[in-house]
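Subject: Protein record for review, amino acid sequence with backbone structure tokens
Why sent: The fold of this protein is of interest and is recorded here as tokens.
Enclosed: The protein record, placed directly beneath this head.
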Amino acid sequence: MASQLYLHPLFRTKVELLSTDERVSLSYQRARLLLQTYRLTSSDVQYCSPKFWSMMMDPICSLDIAMFTIIAAHVGLAIGTLSRHLKKRPDFRPLVDRMLRLDTIGIYLLTERGHGLDAFNIETTATKTADGYILHTPREEAAKFMPASTPSFGIPKVALVMAKLIVDGHDHGSRFFVTPICNEREMYAGVRSVRLPPRSGTAPLDFSITSFDHVHLPPTALVASDILDYTTSTQSLEAWWDEIWRIQLGTMAVPAPWISAIKAVAYIGGRYSMHRSLVGKHSKPVPIITFRTQQWPIVHATAVGMVTANWFPIVIEQAMRKTTDHRVRHAMSVIAKTTICRHFQRCAPEVAERCGAQGTFEHNYMARIENDGKGVIIAEGDILTLCIRLFSELLQKRYDVPMPDRDESLLALHASSLLEENIALLKSLDGDYRSDSFNALILPQSQPVVEAMGHALAYSAAVRANLPQPILDVYECAVIRQDPAWYSEQGGLSRMAQRRREDAAVSAMLPDLSSYLEQLDIAKYVQAPIVTDAGWKDYLADLPVHSGNAVPEVEFIQAML
């Protein structure tokens, strides 16, 4: 399902000329428009239907990461969590219907300021009383951090608050509780929202620290199919993971805009480099794309954009449809998020830097999206923490992730070799994954190995899809750059061989670079004025102009002999 939201006035606004609050308000309006366009049902959200993924993968999301942040939490987490209880909890239906229209915004209050990633050990309590629960934040460190909970933008908000269920003085584990936060004008009694300053250089949102002062909730606030079931699980960690089951799906969803962002960065940098010129020999203009130092960032981002765009729907299918093992589903989600987001973090700053001073301005997209990218690293699971958990489980052979045959490509051999190397290392440590040696020698390899697995999977999918050979070759060279020592030691490629391999790949791609940029299918979403010289002149004409009639005072200075 392809939308044409890029033509809508809400998405043609020059956000860099707005105030912070005007931009936040615009992001909420855009979020509502996006939901109205896709018209998801609760079933679409619960089962992650093709329509759900179409919305998450709509390139329009890469234009406004604040809007995507609203949508990812509101739809993926809040509505998603409630959706699986609707059959036995029809009382949730009116709320979910309002949320599907974005008449009410759902926020997901899980992590606490003093605990961060250690969300299993939260301190917020929901104490059972005769007529419901008392939700309370016992100290500042237990305040919820950092979903947007202010009433400043005219939309009612409701939260799913994770709290320890206390019944008769006993802790029955962490559960979610539906908690009204604010109406269109003000906070509800007992709920406190402290608005945080904007994150540096990003699309702003009213991020907050939220706390509760003995807030009374009805019995129906408990998010469960049976509101009288207070059973304490003997496997508390597994029960907790079951409560936050939507996080695993969110881990797969949040990389989606960054594929479009990689494409946009490649397109902006590529088109700019083709018309931006230096004066060369004989006073003739020479486009900066002529220089290999300019060519590599552009062809790198273009190849990564094409390869990851091809792979992402495939990895979604593998995780959502082709496995019933929730551990494998989560593993594929972690691999996808890690691979795509780290690709973005290498491509975006590299291209932006080669656009010089223009690459640092918000109106040219790249600097802002680079800063926004820092947020996705922690969203729906911190990448490094996710990789540590996945890598530890793979080394202990608790389950297998479907991978290409090691002989299929250099990248597949690389991934297989790294995994085997660390399995052998763990065995030499007597399998003690809680030892200091494991912490010092193996844990630091978690992310590089998970990335290597993603590279192999993405490349394999690209080969099967018959992507152009120059795209495959440049992508392969980009991956080799991440671990040149292994490719020299075990891949049979000396440093000079790697350099010549990269030269051949770039040279083969350059003649068709303009065509590849168009094949990214991102041009209609790009608003950066430096893409064309005419676009820059039009943009310049809309900027504030300062002029005047002041005459400088002439100061006469007596000559001294």
Residues 191 and 212 are 5 Å apart (CA to CA).
